[in-house]
Amino acid sequence: MHALGLRPSGLRHLIALGAHPDDVEIGCGGLLLSLGREAPDLVADIVVLTGTPSRIAEAHRAAALFLPGHKVALHCAALPDGRLPALWGRVKQALEEVAARGPADLVLAPRRSDAHQDHRTVAEQVTTVWRDHLVLGYEIPKWDGDLDRPTVYVPVEDDVMAEKVRLLQEAFPSQSSRDWFDPDVFLGLARLRGMECRSRYAEAFTTDKTVVQW
Q1: Which of 24, 167, 184, 196 could bond 18 through an S-S bridge, CB–CB 3.0 to 4.6 Å?
Q2: Which residues, 6+ apart, have CB-to-CB distance to 47 below 8 Å?
Q3: 204, 195, 117: which is closest to 152 by C-alpha?
Q4: Is the separation of the CB atoms in 46 and 73 below 8 Å?
């Protein structure tokens, strides 16, 4: 394993894509919080493809909590949950509208091997819309047991990880009764990924293609 050092302070534009209102924060909430601290000029576009009005309200609250003090635009397509494969064209249009806002330094999205059909639809389209961008695919723990072997690790400081877990509970009260929406699940996965990269906690990602420019 080789550690490649990047400077978060140089990151200006972030795009984060989620099929559902809590996907982004579960998959990469620690990274969002870390970037929010270290990239003072960060501007973010967050895309949520599905969601009822109450769930979209949670997404708005989460965007403000995870990137406080930053300019964040939340784009909600309000498509029906569980039906994104059948709405391929509308998903593509929603993503292309955000891409037209300008190039991004980093794009965060679900990973291609995700077992959920909505997540997978977004993952399959993201590299056709952002062809020349760094795209990192985040992971979401779930009943399907679909966790894969990551290729990119981002260590997360202890206090940042604790804040991520706290904010997930605060931002998404509608999910609190679900057996998988549990601090132990999120901390356990982060601890495992941290062990794999010699850190206490980490979030893990996959990437299809990365170009290193010297």
Answers
A1: 24
A2: 15, 16, 17, 18, 75, 77, 94, 95, 98
A3: 204
A4: yes
Of 22, 21, 27, 63, the C-alpha closest to 43 is: 63
Beta bridge partners of 136: 108
Residue 11 CA to chain centroid, in angstroms? 16
Listed in sequence order, the DSSP H helices in 3-139 are: 23-38, 53-66, 88-99, 117-129
Which one-letter DSSP state was computed for residue 44?
E
- pTM greater than 0.85 (yes/no): yes
User: What is the residue type of 205?
Assistant: F
Q: pLDDT tens, 99-135?
A: 999 999 999 999 999 999 999 999 999 999 999 899 9
Q: Please give the single-letter amino acid code of residue 164.
A: K
H/E segment holding residue 201: strand 201-206
